[in-house]
Amino acid sequence: MQYYRAFGLTIASDLNLEPLQSLYDNADADVTIFLGQVSKIGLENPTDIKPLCQQAENKHWFCVPDIARFYITNGNSIIVEPFENSDMQSVKLYLLGTCLGIIFHQRDLLVIHGNAVRFGDKAVIFAGKSGNGKSTLAAAFHQKGYDILADDLAVIDKQGLCYPSYPQLKLWQDTANKLGINTDELHRIRLQVNKYAMPIKAGFYDKPLPVAGLYILQTHKQKNIEFIPANGFEKFKPLKNQTYRKGQLEGLGLKPQHLRACTQLANNIFVTHLTRPSEGFKLDELISAIEEDISLKKMITKQQELTC
Prior knowledge:
By secondary structure, this protein is α+β, with helices and mostly antiparallel strands. The chain is built from 6 helices and 20 strands.
């Protein structure tokens, strides 16, 4: 077994999980990843059946053809059975993505599909549909000297703390080109796609931070950058919609807990829809606009506290 630290958890694994941060002393594991046999047909009594995926309370089975079968239980155990000659990079990608995402749901944690960046003593999360610029923004903020807290999965507990993931950013080739990042020596996250794992050698923040807010990234055909704050109950729906693998929650029997977690977080953070031009925008201008918006939000919060 090899031991790692990520998302506030100690993870023991039969597989090498670099780039997770290694623990050199064996520790009591919160989550254990085993190589073993996984049923070819799924669960004995599933409550929810989807193509290549089955669920019951505290149990999740899924199969990725030509890659592996996975069995996730009780928020603390993952069994993986790779297929013969499978691509181990892809196996690891599913372990660190879908599998850990289900583990976090089973542990009653809120998981937002987004990147978390440190602003002072708070974390700000950037979420949105694939292609709307989450990774580009995170990498651009990192180049400007901001610390990265999490890439792809922002894991949040009941106290509103976002936990550090591991020191890596995943970048598409076109994002790397925009930012002048040479991918020649970077590893693809999967052999079949032009997306690369970029180690964060400096500028990774490894302590949990309270979440200040969430930006929902969108694009339009206009030339302006637009910030539209959500208020009251309007903040709930974006949190629910940006939840990682939210379609699995009902089958896991976790939908009520998830709705409560979204409501609780919505009451304590800002949520803003950030819309940028789909073409012709300058990344530096977008970064400056976000910095200005966050600064303004801090001023508003301070004024409200003084008023109270």
